[in-house]
Design brief:
Layout: E1 2-7, H1 13-22, E2 26-29, H2 31-39, E3 45-46, H3 47-51, H4 66-73, H5 79-87, E4 93-99, H6 103-109, H7 113-118, H8 123-133, E5 139-141, H9 147-156, H10 160-189, E6 202-207, E7 217-221, H11 225-229, E8 230-234, H12 239-252, E9 259-264, E10 267-273, H13 277-287, H14 289-292, E11 296-303, H15 305-311, E12 318-324, H16 326-331, E13 339-343, E14 351-356, E15 359-364, H17 370-374, E16 377-378, H18 386-400, E17 406-411, E18 414-420, H19 425-438, E19 447-450, H20 458-465, E20 470-473, H21 480-489, E21 493-496
Parallel strand pairs: 1-2, 1-4, 2-3, 4-5, 11-12, 12-13, 19-20, 20-21
Antiparallel strand pairs: 6-7, 8-13, 9-10, 9-11, 14-15, 16-21, 17-18, 17-19
Length: 504
């Protein structure tokens, strides 16, 4: 019986081939794989001699031959197929090990379209699909990490269930490959928005359930973002934890260092940016320590003993940091329900999509640049100080990452009031003030940000009533003049960024 080995990723292919030979397989191979196997002294048959046909067109045609595909596809329990195979001198190929030309890797190394085109695999996907289609009789292998497990199964009983699992992997492999090629071509020639868009991810972890216990759930990753950068230190993360962790981490990492963000049900209820993480944490709690209870915390930096000691006084559902020290872990030993995670890289996805009934909406990822605020247009008579500008920057980023309609009040780089997700912007502003009063916080001298323009002057009048000193917003309302007039009447500095950041 024959095994066909033709791989781009040649990791451990020699070991795999030796194991197959010990199980009675004869090895068919091509090109670079053939050279590697022979270099290791492994007996194998050149496919060109097997099919009595040379490789054509610089290797573009190697395995596209009835003796190869017939050997994979004929049904071993079908008398007619068996007779046709015998008459055509076609022999059974019972194992196909193929992984594909590195198209994705090439696109990251070069912009040379001719080279990119040559790294679109034709024969490989055809072999994989043929073997996967005939999985009842053929073992299909696409991942070098599976070699050891496959050998063990072949030595035991090579069950139909086992071959079925490999078949699913094979179709996933070719589907992802084709999706990437199609997306790349649309990115190159259609600005990323072609007639079709393919969203594909690999399962990273199954969650216990979805948003609610009656829903199934899992986290799928783009590329290998979570596999490479995420570490589960303690506990099991839920579906909702991942939603909150992602948002909290995105906000905390929008700043250089020492930022701490507390999220509850998808929204920030605490944020601070101070000289140390301990100070940031203490200040972040002030915004809403009631909602913070049972929330999720993201730390832009290292969670060490001193920070862990003070955080241990509050119950949080999950904490995520760049790194957690051994001493910090010991502090949290008694917190049985606490989940701890490390994530050392913030995501930089190019696209964002939202599921709606019957489809999804696709858009470029919204990015918030510091210069939107730092180079914003002064529209009021009063200028801001350096500290006020920093507060405006913090407030603006928080507003941009929070559900619309949103307003944020920041004082000394600490979130002191936030209103979000309401149908009226002035209601969001009012809610933030009421919550700040409940927490005993003084908004005098704070800075305010809105992720979209103020349609009326009422939000500015309200801000003035609690002592807001500076406001940043996109501008663009037909009543901008009235809004600016209100700012000037109340001696509030106002800046326009001319860029909206809705988050629906």
């Amino acid at each position: 019986m024959y095994a066909l080995l033709s791989v781009s990723d040649k990791k451990n292919i020699d070991i795999f081939a030796k194991e197959l030979i010990s199980l009675g397989y004869e090895i068919l191979s091509t090109g670079g794989t053939l050279k590697v196997l022979r270099k290791h002294g492994i007996a194998c048959i050149d496919i060109s001699s097997y099919i009595d046909s040379k490789e054509l067109f610089d290797g573009r045609v190697k395995t596209l031959h009835p003796k190869i595909h017939g050997g994979i596809l004929f049904r071993r329990d079908n008398d007619s197929d068996i007779k046709v195979a015998k008459d055509a001198n076609i022999f059974a190929i019972n194992l196909v090990c193929v992984n594909l030309y590195p198209f994705k890797a090439i696109t990251k190394k070069t912009n040379d379209f001719d080279e990119i085109i040559e790294n679109i695999d034709i024969g490989g996907p055809s072999l994989i699909r043929a073997a996967a289609k005939n999985f009842k009789d053929v073992v299909v292998v696409v991942n070098p990490d599976d070699y050891q497990n496959i050998i063990q199964n072949l030595k035991n009983n090579n069950t139909l269930e086992f071959r079925k699992s490999l078949m699913i992997k094979a179709f996933e492999h070719t589907a992802e490959y084709d999706c990437f090629i199609a997306n790349y071509m649309n990115e190159r020639f259609n600005n990323g928005f072609g007639d079709s868009k393919f969203i594909f991810g690999k399962k990273f972890i199954a969650t216990k359930y979805g948003e609610n216990p009656h829903q199934n759930g899992a986290l799928y990753e783009f590329e290998d973002y979570w596999s490479k950068n995420f570490e589960i230190i303690k506990g099991e993360s839920s579906f909702n934890n991942f939603l909150d962790l992602s948002n909290a981490f995105k906000i905390a990492n929008a700043f250089d260092k020492n930022a701490i963000c507390i999220i509850k049900h998808g929204n920030p209820c605490g944020f601070a940016l101070k000289e140390s993480l301990v100070e940031s944490y203490k200040e972040a709690l002030k915004c809403d320590n009631v909602s913070a209870y049972g929330g999720v915390v993201a730390i832009n930096g290292e969670l060490d003993y001193s920070l862990a000691k003070i955080m241990n006084e509050m119950f949080f559902e999950a904490i995520i940091a760049h790194f957690i020290t051994k001493e910090a872990l010991e502090v949290f030993n008694s917190k049985k329900r606490l989940r701890l995670f490390c994530l050392n890289k913030n995501t930089s996805d190019s696209y964002d999509f939202r599921r709606i009934s019957g489809g999804f909406l696709l858009q470029n990822m919204d990015l918030i640049d510091d210069n939107e605020v730092l180079h914003s247009k002064q529209v009021s008579k009063i200028r801001v100080s350096k500290n006020q500008m920093q507060d405006l920057l913090v407030a603006y980023k928080l507003a941009a990452f929070t559900k619309s309609n949103c307003v944020t009040y920041v004082k000394d780089s600490v979130l002191v009031g936030i209103g979000m997700g309401l149908t009226s912007r002035v209601d969001s502003a009012r809610l933030a003030i009421l919550k700040a009063k409940d927490m005993g916080l003084d908004l005098e001298g704070s800075s305010l940000a809105s992720e979209a323009f103020f349609p009326f002057r009422d939000s500015v009048d309200l801000a003035a009533s609690v002592g807001v000193s500076a406001i940043v917003q996109p501008g663009g309302s037909i009543r901008d003049n009235e809004v600016i007039e209100s700012a000037n009447e109340h001696n509030i500095a106002m800046y326009f960024t001319n860029k909206r950041h809705f988050l629906h």
